[in-house]
Amino acid sequence: MRPSVPLVARSPHFAARVIPFLAAASSFACVDSTGPPHPLIEETEFAASLGVELEEMTRIGGGVYVQDLTVGTGPVLESGRGVRIAYDLFVPEGRHVLRSERSEFVMGCKEVVPGLETGIGGMRVGGTRRIVVPPRLGFGERPPWLVDVPPHSILVYVVAALASFGAPCGAL
């Protein structure tokens, strides 16, 4: 009998490709209205290394904050289109949680963390953006088991928009 090899060991990019999808599922599945209050972005102290200066950022839908670090010149990332991004994920204390060099999904199909999808909307391919996601649009009460993030955490992404292409929901 062949020994079983964990799926994570078979693919070095497995975690980076699967976590956004697991996170989307966990954030839609659990809503905790009885627990401690969730931290507010505006009251959070961010590590200086993250470069988060809320007064220099734009607050968009759902309380997500965005800041374009580089404005791209390619097609716009928009709902109903397939997108390819690369990102680094941090918690407010500055700890690096995850890196994905290539994550593909269709915007508007609820395949990723809601705050990430909100935050990349309107980016142009070739651009980079800092995104601060409130807990209710992040991983929620139960972060994916592959990500070392406390429940109800504020998330800080630095995202690069790599491509935009036609793809229906569920195609990727």
If you had to describe this structure to a student in words, what would you say it looks like?
This protein has a single domain, classed as Chitinase A, domain 3 (Roll). It has helices spanning 7-10, 14-29, 114-120; strands at 58-59, 65-70, 81-90, 96-106, 128-133, 155-166. The model is unreliable at 1-34 (pLDDT under 50). With 172 residues, it is an alpha+beta fold. It has 3 helices and 6 strands. Strand 3 and strand 4 (96-106) form a beta hairpin.
How much of the sequence lies in strands comes to 25-35%
The shape is globular
Largest sheet: 6 strands, antiparallel
Biggest sheet, strands in spatial order?
1-2-5-6-3-4
Beta strands, count: 6
CATH architecture: Roll
Poorly predicted segments: 1-34
Structure summary:
The protein is α+β, with helices and mostly antiparallel strands and 172 residues long.
Record the SSE blueprint.
Blueprint: H1 7-10, H2 14-29, E1 58-59, E2 65-70, E3 81-90, E4 96-106, H3 114-120, E5 128-133, E6 155-166
Antiparallel strand pairs: 1-2, 2-5, 3-4, 3-6, 5-6
